[in-house]
Amino acid sequence: MPIVWYVVVSALVFCIGTYGVLTRRNPLVILLCLELMLNASNLALIAFARQHGNADGQIFAIIVLVVAACEVTIGLGLIVALYRRRLPIDVDQMNELQG
Amino acid sequence: MSSVVFFVAAIGVLAGAIGVVVLANPFYSVLALVAHLISLAALFLLLRAEFVAAAQVVVYAGAVMVLYVFVVAYVGGQDQPVRSSGPGLRLIAALFGAALLCELWIAVIGSSLKSLTEHGAPYTPGFGSPSQIGQLLLTRFLEPFEVASFLLLVAAVGAVILARRRRGLGDEDEERLPGFPAISVAEVLSGRVPTGSMAEAAGLGYEVGESAAGTRRQARGGW
């Protein structure tokens, strides 16, 4: 398949993820949508690595994978902490820092 | 053959992504993401990224998603109304997504890279294999590799600190912190002091006199 097809799939997934981040209110689902966006960027990186026949892009994708895992860990820790404080699991109601 | 695999996998990727965004129950969203990740691994295999595909399935679709499922089960996968703050915001979000797609589309077309419409560089044996990736990670990319491992350590410690069970509410923490003399080891061992342990959460090691409500409040932890 021409490389451009992979880039198109990546762009579509990225836009779907953006839409999810903007509309959903449950922080768990927002984290999932962030994963979607990171995965889309991974797909683009790997597609370009294939295009150039250079494995550097794959290393980049692996590092993105690691950063995504860290982000998930911290995000889920925050959600558990929210739950322990009996706060609503809803980003629209987490506005105490809003000033 | 490869184009058939591509289209099947791409449909799986897009369906999984839409499922994550549309499904109301977070648990089903997680399952949709697993399907998305596995289809994505198929695309990675088509792009000759064997190691990344394997890592994706094992680490992501395996470990990270199990973490998600645990947290969804803990927090309670309550059916959240998909409704966002209002139809206005949803419209704006859709417009923003569409604008982003147009922008990316223009970027792809406008780059006018001839090689984008070709099948990529000729395949050399060993491209993307674990041995090549490992060699790169330990020679040219040693620094990012080490930084990534340190980042993982920081994230693990941070998650433990964020999600740990704390004694009482914030004020009690504050007043016991300065001098430490409030709790002695003997008291902890005799079970008179809430220690924030799992045994305590299970209702063991408590004074009999304490009211059930107090027990629950303490056992659930404040933070």
Form type of chain B: extended
Largest sheet of chain B: none
Which architecture of chain A per CATH?
Orthogonal Bundle
Mean pLDDT of chain A: 87
Beta-strand content bin of chain A: under 5%
Just name the CATH architecture of the domain at 2-82 in chain B. Answer: Up-down Bundle
Structural class category of chain A: mainly alpha
Number of helices of chain B: 10
Count every beta strand of chain A, where a strand is a DSSP E run of 2 or more residues.
0
Summarize the main sheet of chain A. none
Low-confidence stretches of chain B: 171-180, 205-223
Radius of gyration of chain B, whole Å: 26 Å
Strand content of chain B: under 5%
Structural class of chain B: mainly alpha
Radius of gyration of chain A: 17 Å
Q: Helix proportion of residues of chain A, in percent?
A: over 70%
What CATH calls the topology of the domain at 2-82 in chain B is: Four Helix Bundle (Hemerythrin (Met), subunit A)
Largest interface: A-B, 71 and 90 residues
CATH class of chain A: Mainly Alpha
Helix content of chain B: 55-70%
Structure description:
The complex is a heterodimer of chains A (99) and B (223). By secondary structure, chain A is mainly alpha-helical. Chain A is built from three helices and no strands. The N and C termini of chain B lie far apart (55 Å). Chain B contains ten helices and no strands. Chain B is an all-alpha fold and 223 residues long. The longest helix of chain B has 26 residues, at 50-75. Mean pLDDT of chain B is 77; it is low at 171-180 and 205-223. In chain B, helix 1 packs antiparallel against helix 2 (26-46) and helix 2 (26-46) packs antiparallel against helix 3. Classes of the chains: A mainly alpha (99), B mainly alpha (223). Chains A and B meet through helix 1, helix 2 and helix 3 of A and helix 1, helix 2, helix 3, helix 4 and helix 5 of B.
Write the layout of secondary structure elements.
The complex is a heterodimer of chains A (99) and B (223).
Chain A: H1 3-23, H2 27-52, H3 56-84
Helix pairs in contact in A: 1-2, 2-3
Chain B: H1 2-22, H2 26-46, H3 50-75, H4 87-111, H5 130-138, H6 142-163, H7 170-176, H8 185-190, H9 198-201, H10 212-220
Helix pairs in contact in B: 1-2, 2-3
